[in-house]
Design a protein that fits this description.
Order of helices and strands: HHHEHEHEEHEHHEHHHEE
Mean pLDDT: 92
Distance between the termini: 29 Å
Radius of gyration: 18 Å
CATH superfamily of the domain at 7-148 and 172-206 and 259-266: Vaccinia Virus protein VP39
Oligomer: single chain
Number of helices: 11
CATH architecture of the domain at 7-148 and 172-206 and 259-266: 3-Layer(aba) Sandwich
Largest sheet: 8 strands, mixed
Strand content: 15-25%
Bound molecules: S-adenosylmethionine
Helix content: 40-55%
């Protein structure tokens, strides 16, 4: 890796990435509607080279490579995510901090599914990504709207807080899943980074998984998985918090509303 400024995030995602890698099939199933949005966006903007930022285990990178035939590169700060991504082939994966990495090539399209909310200096990061685009280059990413609009995630945070009452409350302005929830702030960040033609549109999708996968999901991902790591009897604790998610269970299926922004922008050159 050339250089890294987000070392706390690198450490965090190296650890969290192990759970994501274990549960990657579940994550990809649950987040599939947002993968489909980005594949559709890539089909509408045929480009030779596509960069997927914060690609994680690489499902979106691979899906765009398969759907468009473009050369697709995934960049991620977490080695544990990339180990899993590289197992599948079909795309190239680079370990780097996307905020500062000097990309050696230019990309006609930069995409991201929930991978651009973790920069300590988002203006610098989006300016760096702009430098990595071709003159006709475009940016298209999906990011979460507010916690209130994403009740599955707030339920997980509340359930974890009941297990770790001393944990500090999440700071909405700090790098994290909701760092770009405020569309006005996101537009300002992108403008200051030099992007033009900015469009921020609400997209709502229902994410689903079989009920049998809910406990493996909760124990590998998000705030509950972190709380369970410190527990003496994780199975007992999981059974205790599982009831908080009943409202999302419909028969043998879990249905989770996902409230997001689809953000597009273009290189002003
Ligand atoms: C919520 S996960 C999303 C992963 C993947 N895009 C997906 O949808 O499955 C966020 C990803 O962003 C990566 N990430 C966080 N900060 C980064 C940075 N500065 N540069 C590159 N990747 C970063 C994390 O390592 C993690 O894999």
């Amino acid at each position: 890796m050339t250089s890294e400024v987000n070392s706390a995030q690198a450490e965090w995602w190296n650890d969290a990435g192990k759970g994501w890698a274990r549960a990657q099939d579940i994550v990809d199933l649950v987040l599939r509607p947002f993968q489909d949005l980005l594949v559709e966006a890539a089909r509408a903007r045929p480009r030779e080279q596509v960069l997927d930022v914060g690609c994680g285990t690489g499902a979106v990178t691979r899906a765009i490579a398969e759907a468009t035939g473009a050369r697709c590169v995934g960049v991620d700060i977490s080695e544990s995510m990339l180990v899993a991504a590289r197992e599948h082939g079909k795309a190239e994966f680079v370990r780097a901090d996307a905020q500062v990495h000097r990309f050696e090539e230019s990309f006609g399209l930069i995409v991201s599914r929930f991978g651009v909310m973790f920069f300590d200096d988002p203006i610098a990061a989006f300016a760096n990504l702009l430098r990595a685009t071709t003159p006709d280059g475009e940016l298209c990413f999906i990011t979460w709207r507010t916690p209130e609009e994403n009740p599955f995630m707030t339920t997980a945070t509340r359930a974890a807080a009941s297990l770790l009452p001393d944990a500090p409350a999440p700071d909405p302005d700090a790098p994290g899943p909701f760092a770009l929830a405020d569309a006005t702030k996101t537009r300002r960040i992108l403008e200051q980074a030099g992007w033009s033609g900015i469009d921020i549109s609400a997209v709502d999708r229902i994410c689903t998984m079989p009920e049998a996968l809910l406990e493996p999901y909760l124990s590998n991902l998000g705030p509950i998985s972190r709380a369970l790591k410190e527990a003496e009897d994780p199975a007992e604790i999981l059974a205790r918090v599982r009831g908080a998610f009943d409202e999302f269970v419909h028969g043998d299926e879990v249905r989770v509303p996902g409230a997001c922004w689809q953000v597009t922008a273009s290189n002003p050159l």
